Amino acid sequence: MDHLETRERHTTWFAMAAALLVALMVTWGSVPALPVAAAVEYPPVPRLTLPTCLDPMTSSRLPESRVTTVIAAIKARAGTHLLGLGPCSQGLVTVGLTPGSERLARQIRDAFGPAVLITVGLTSWNGHTGRSPRCGSLPASLDPPAGLSLSVHLASKRVRSGDNLQGTVSVDYHRSGRRSDAPPFVMDTGQPIEAVVVRRGTHDVVGVYSGGIAGTGYGVHLSPGQRATIPAFVGTARCDGGPGSALPGGRYQVVAAVMDENGKPPRYLTPPVGLTVTPS
Fold it and tell me: What dihedral do alpha carbons 37, 190, 165, 50 form, nearest 10°?
């Protein structure tokens, strides 16, 4: 039986991340792609050094009369590869592209020049393929309480490099004893939960989601014999320190952290499940 308390919360870290994304896009035109839950070090993505309107890392500028035309042309060209697009002041435009879009980044740079600030996944495009940041390991976790089991379920065991994948996280409460005297399991996880890609047999994070997500509050309140099913997703933006924005093809594992939406302990990790990343 599924049993979830669902409610809107404007203070969840997903909502805060989305609000920040929107605010920066309005103020600066666009923002570099950031992990959804960086504030609580999950996923453990380091601070990124990417061009922004405040720190463009270039002295090039577009004529103000061309900015609107350039934005329209990039939007038409980028299509579904576009994560963010907008003007800065003083003749700059920022563009965020999905992981694996280096070819498109080169086309945009060749067409419009360095006054268009381009990020691809978690990397910067400055005329050549950027190097991904190096994620850390998953945060310290506890064994789930007696009777509680966690699992992550993916829509597919295969995903193309640069793409995202949906799934669910199941929380099953099997605690023995009479329902009347067993305490419930309660946790405000928020939703959706972001799972991460790790090297097989380790907790070293090598792939994450690189976009912004607006979520809602999700309160798990389970009595023995009940189950919660929480929406989840996983991305393949590369973060192992290697060249390129998309995780290279290979065999990996996926793990999700189940914890309070504000990141406070306790934190529980799902057992890993296999994932094959295929070249794009």
Answer: -20
Mean pLDDT of 119-129: 95
Nearest by Cα to 233 from 198, 199, 197: 197
Residue 41 domain-assigned?
Answer: yes
Q: For residues 263 and 13, is the Cβ–Cβ distance under 8 A?
A: yes
Cα 167 to Cα 177, 193, 226, 238, 270: the distances in Å are 31, 9, 20, 20, 13
Closest CA relative to residue 196, chosen from 236, 156, 140, 247: 236
Tell me how many domains the chain contains. Answer: 2
| Rounded distance between C-alpha atoms, residue 11 and residue 34, angstroms | 18
What does the block give as tokens for 42?
């999950």
Cβ atoms of 114 and 61 closer than 8 Å: no
Cα 165 to Cα 68, 96, 145, 215: the distances in Å are: 34, 20, 29, 17
- List the domain range (segments joined by +) for residue 22: 13-125
Provide the 3-class DSSP secondary structure of residue 18: helix
Model-wide pTM > 0.85: no
Domain boundary among 92, 125, 158: 125
CATH number reported for the structural domain that contains residue 175 in this entry: 2.60.40
Q: What pairs with residue 275 in β-bridges?
A: 252
Q: What is the pLDDT of residues 156-207, one digit of tens each?
A: 999 999 999 999 999 999 866 555 567 888 888 888 999 999 999 999 999 9
pLDDT, one tens digit per residue, over 43-75 is 899 888 899 999 999 999 999 999 999 999 999
CB 249 within 8 A of CB 277: yes
